[in-house]
UniProtKB/TrEMBL annotation:
Keyword Cytoplasm: no
Organism (species): Oribacterium parvum
Coiled coil: none
Protein's recorded name: Substrate-binding domain-containing protein
Xref: InterPro entries: Peripla_BP_I, SBP_2_dom
Superkingdom of the organism of origin: Bacteria
Molecular function via GO: carbohydrate binding
Membership in a protein family: Belongs to the bacterial solute-binding protein 2 family.
Amino acid sequence: IPVIFFNRELVEEDLSQWNRLYYVGADAKQSGVLQGELIAKDVLEDGEGENGAVTLSPEVDKNQDGKIQYIIFEGEPGHQDAIMRTEYATGTLMKESIPLERLGYGIANWNRAEAQSKMMQLYSEFQDRIELIISNNDDMALGVIDAYDKIAVSKDNRPFIYGIDGTKVGLRAVEKGNLRATVYNDGRGQAKALFQLAFQLASGEETKGEEGGIRKIIRLPYSKVTKENCAEFLEEEERDSK
């Protein structure tokens, strides 16, 4: 019996252990890279500073110390997507030579309420030293926003907050300017690919040769979402909900 995993990716070594294991989802590595690129675009000023050093935007580097103090919110311990999103988001920033200082991190199990509670604790410790918040998903990013709302910190004095997934609520937060940007996960496309793969397997097409045969791993691409283009993603979500 073929087994299809979706959304939560296995490591490729596990998928190779049996020839009837399949995976449909997105590339967690790509989501982290795109999130990092979105952040870098906001953090970096045009041109270089002295001795070729990067110039940081004063909108982000609020204390003007030449580095970005950040907090990261991770999904859950050992989750492959959480590991990849964190590694490649921060790795992309490092490739851009952006000086970083991690103040702390929160594991909030992808959950909005847990992220709000954790953010309240972190804010009590670091307060306005926090310049950037990187979240593994939109729900935790929204929990961070909830915490800042509860603390009553004005938008101008909040750090830039970034998510991943492009949920409908997350897209609305981008539209309102509460969430700086997110990375859209094409759940609709994944569902279509999952159905097509299941149909092919049920039809016995997996017995085909390597050329033209069924791929064991199907990954759909992510897309960057900012305030400038979030309307088109919201329109798609509205069409699908009708």
